[in-house]
Amino acid sequence: MGVVISIVSQKGGVGKTTTAVNLSAALGAAEKEVLLVDLDPQGNATTGLGIDKTKLKKSIYHGIVGDADPEEIIIESSIKYLKLLPARMELFRVELELMSRPDKEKILLNLLTHLKGTYEYIIVDAPPSLSLLTFNAITAADFLLIPLQCEFYALGAVSQMIQVVQVLKRRLNPSLKIAGILLTMFNPRENSCVQIAESAREQFNDMLFKTIIPENSDLRNAPAHGAPVLVQDIGSPGSRCYFSLAEEILNLRTTAS
Fold this sequence. Notes:
Elements: E1 3-7, H1 16-29, E2 34-38, H2 44-48, H3 60-64, H4 70-73, E3 75-76, E4 82-85, H5 94-98, H6 107-113, E5 121-125, H7 132-140, E6 143-149, H8 152-171, E7 177-186, H9 191-204, E8 208-214, H10 217-225, H11 229-232, H12 237-256
Parallel strand pairs: 1-5, 1-6, 2-4, 2-5, 6-7, 7-8
Antiparallel strand pairs: 3-4
Helix pairs in contact: 1-12, 6-7
């Protein structure tokens, strides 16, 4: 059975979508069958894989609110083993349309359940908020990956997210595990970045991934080119870091099994 890894942070701009796209690409490059699920109404993960959202006939919205089979919505990417469940702006309507629905936090779980037999890894890019969509991403997950941008306020945001996760784990997903906290946008030349990284190690210890994602122009500019950074330059520092993270994820599954 496949593993669902949701990438969550209520804080925007922490490298969440960058991680979702590039981790998915790195796992695909390792010849693992991967499905990237864009659960953010902004649809940035969809754009990050070079998909023109205006040409989509259906999006994940139709799978969540309607009766569309996810197989009708899933599309190919430029990477052989990586496919996408895309999102568009209409996903914003989900909050209101599902509010009175029973088990509204488990709709994504139900949507992905039969796909776990097809894909080895399902990576969910959750929106940057504590919303119903984020709760769905947490409820559907086997593991969570939490990005931590190397800046002061991010430490508090991660602590708050962990508290939310503990509540949802008790209520909705008892088997949920935190795969790890990922330091992102790290610049070793900035003392504040180094101090935040040191504080994170003291506070979260073994929860931190060994991989650290650097502040990197290639990663920052990759979305404008509509392709993961490893497609543009497989030897770049950003590509090497996401290959390293993918290796940690592969080892995580081995350990878990």
